[in-house]
Give the backbone structure.
Amino acid sequence: MKLKKALLVVDPQVDFCPGGSLAVPEGDRIMRPLSRYIKVFSKKGLPIFVSRDWHPKNTRHFKKFGGVWPVHCVQDTKGAEFHKDLKLVKEVIILSKGMDPKEDSYSAFESRDSNGTLFENLLRIFGVDEIYIGGLATDYCVRATAIDAIKAGFKATVLMDAIKGVDLKPGDSQTAIKEMLGYGAKKTTLEKVS
Ligand code: VGL
Ligand code: ZN
């Protein structure tokens, strides 16, 4: 069987964009390029996954229960919705993560589709060998996902024009990019894929 590429858009959610409770600077600015990647993959008939941070109200992930983050992306709230500038297509597979109140679950490899199937199993079912990864945030979920992808034996390509980071410490995103490349991830931009 010929193996193929898949697109993964990581956590393009209201709370991670300006105005949201865990706003990534300029997070909203990548919704347009992400939408274009979605169109390109859709035209090629390749699988498209969109993950969402999908927390319960009470989770150790949040500062008030011992974690580091303000309350964000609580299930079924406005902040957990996908940003309005992201243009989804009907075949998109939505993945949810962060439901376990004891886990941070930054990586999309901890996410499941609506049937409860793990992302990695979906990739194997679709015959995917290379994942194109963009979204939010560079220094958390994008980083963790790209590294887990490589550890699980997939090729990972980072969408350099469609990622933004939190940068709790200045430079965190740059460090994350170096780490992903160090693991063997590749970089790409829109003009190279369309
Ligand atoms: C994320 C911080 C907390 C992310 C999720 O999606 O990168 N970052 N929860
Ligand atoms: Zn979170």
Notes: The two ends are 24 Å apart (CA to CA). The chain has one domain: 4-193.
